Amino acid sequence: MLPNRIFFTGVPGSRWSGIAQILESLPGFNTSDRTPKREYKHNSYSGHVGAYFGPGMEFEPLLDAEYIDQAWAQPGGCRLVKSHEWSEMLEEVHRAFPQDWIMLVHRQHRPSLEWWLEAGGYNISYPDYSAYKDMSVTIKQQNRSIMQWVFKRNCKLERFTPFWIEREFGQSIDFDYSKYEDVFVTLWKP
Predict the structure, then answer these.
(1) Domain boundaries in the chain?
(2) Separation CA 146–CA 90 (nearest Å)
(3) Which of the two ends of the chain, N or C, has the fewest CB atoms closer than 10 A to its terminal CB?
(4) Cα(181)–Cα(161) distance, rounded to whole angstroms?
(5) 42, 119 contact by CB (below 8 A)
(6) What is the rounded distance in angstroms from the CA atom of residue 113 to the CA atom of residue 154?
(7) What is the pTM of this model?
(8) Which residues face 101 on adjacent strands?
(9) What is d(CA 131, CA 53) in angstroms, rounded to the nearest whole number?
(10) For residue range 92-139, what is the model confidence (pLDDT) as tens digits?
């Protein structure tokens, strides 16, 4: 059974938005945070859909249930709460929402930065990345924070595949996972 929320994080360019869209296609997820103004599509990229929480964005990364949940138009279902900032707030997220899950997406610095730049970098229409002054430094710091949580909690980073989804979510889904060969995920369930 899914929790009320999954706090979902990964660095810019980690392909986390594509992973988010795959997860949200599973039964039980609430996608009523999707609106035309919360969307970015670019050629062959999966793009961004739904609410993103971050500094200077429509929703700040605040750990308040009422504030977070207002991003969704409909009640119920599991909300995938997306923010790069959660990577540096994992202990606080866990303390504030001890019954909710935390999902981490990890991809090495260089391919993440290159993918982020290729997909539009600072020039995308959504979300707004202007608060990040040096994305290379940001990606390194956020990846470091993700790995600190992984080591501290003894989490296992694994490739993102249909087999992983079936084991962790109990649901089958088929997708081309070859583009996630250098992407690793872990799901913290209290």
Answers:
(1) 5-188
(2) 8
(3) N
(4) 9
(5) yes
(6) 27
(7) 0.95
(8) 6
(9) 12
(10) 999 999 999 999 999 999 999 999 998 888 988 788 889 999 999 999
